[in-house]
Design a protein that fits this description.
The chain is of the alpha/beta class. It is built from 14 helices and eight strands.
Length: 308
């Protein structure tokens, strides 16, 4: 029995990237557009590029079984790739829920969202304002929020704070992200206007921790996910470690709006057990009650998406 199972947690990972064949095709296209010697992103990175979405979905199920993970929120990590994660949730409906990257500034974004929800069983979408250069308060965003809010058990991820993608740097692909659009404070107005729609800020705000806490404190429909190594802590004066992050988040937001995420993505690495261990140990050190631990590692996301 693995360590995760020994902890007795029904884990629902809120942040797992689904690096589908479409994701690798998009990377290869970007390499072809530049002056790169090789157009094989997977080969350069030492990653396994899946042959089909079905094969990748099956591999993730095997990986989750091996690590004692009950369910995962799969994130389609290239624009408009709702089809790939839709295949995964159709193939393993008891293991996956999905969101997909959406740029609201592109024509037809509203129609694509409606199709993703109705045809591909998407549970929402993921916004990257700094990547695509728009304000989350833009009327195009609000149009999408209106669609999402009309569907039960739908949520919206909004990436805030520092946005770094190490694989793009390794491949020599430019990342012209604009941090002016990364402040969680911008989310307060739309979260207030769509109170029935849950919003998730990943990585504790990724360097805008104070601002993320402020917004979540003001808006009961704003959640924080705990994913990644949380290396943003080095940007945050007065926040020395993950123990302090959890203490402050629990004091400000409470135990019911924190969602465990691993930020797992590529194979052969697979599910990042180290992230789970670090967060579980941190909560143990601050003497978080068992009910709180159960909520963070799965109960809160199950309540949002499954009504448990």
């Amino acid at each position: 029995m693995n360590e995760t199972a020994r902890n007795g947690l029904d884990i629902f990972d809120a942040h797992v990237h689904f690096f589908s064949p479409a994701f690798f095709r998009a990377l290869n296209d970007q390499l072809e557009q530049g002056e790169h010697a090789s157009h094989d992103a997977a080969g350069q990175l030492g990653w396994h590029a899946p042959e089909t979405p079905e094969a990748l979905a099956d591999r993730w199920v095997s990986e989750m079984d091996r690590n004692g993970v009950s369910r995962a929120m799969l994130i389609a990590s290239t624009l408009g790739d709702a089809t790939s994660v839709g295949v995964a949730v159709e193939r393993h409906p008891d293991r996956f829920r999905t969101v997909y990257m959406l740029n609201p500034m592109l024509p037809g974004a509203d129609m694509r969202l409606s199709a993703a929800i109705s045809e591909h069983r998407a549970s929402g979408f993921f916004l990257f304002p700094a990547m695509h250069h728009y304000s989350v308060q833009d009327h195009h965003v609000r149009s999408l929020l209106g669609i999402a809010s009309s569907h039960p058990n739908t949520l919206v991820y909004v990436h805030c704070g520092a946005l770094t993608m190490g694989f793009r740097r390794k491949l020599g692909i430019a990342s012209p992200f604009d941090l002016r659009y990364s402040n969680p404070v911008d989310l307060q107005g739309v979260a207030h206007d769509y109170p029935q729609l849950p919003f998730v800020i990943p990585h504790f705000g990724a360097g805008f921790f104070r601002e993320a806490l402020m917004v979540a404190s003001m808006c009961p429909n704003v959640y924080l996910d705990t994913s990644s190594s949380n290396s943003w802590i080095r940007y945050q004066p007065g926040v020395p470690d993950l123990d302090t992050v959890f203490k402050m988040a629990l004091e400000s937001v409470g135990p019911k709006r924190l969602l465990f995420g691993s930020d797992s993505s590529w194979f052969p690495r697979g599910w990042v057990q180290r992230i789970f261990d670090e967060q579980r140990e941190s909560l143990s050190r601050i003497n978080a009650p068992e009910e709180t631990v159960q909520s963070i590692f799965g109960g809160n996301l199950r309540a949002l998406l499954l009504g448990d």
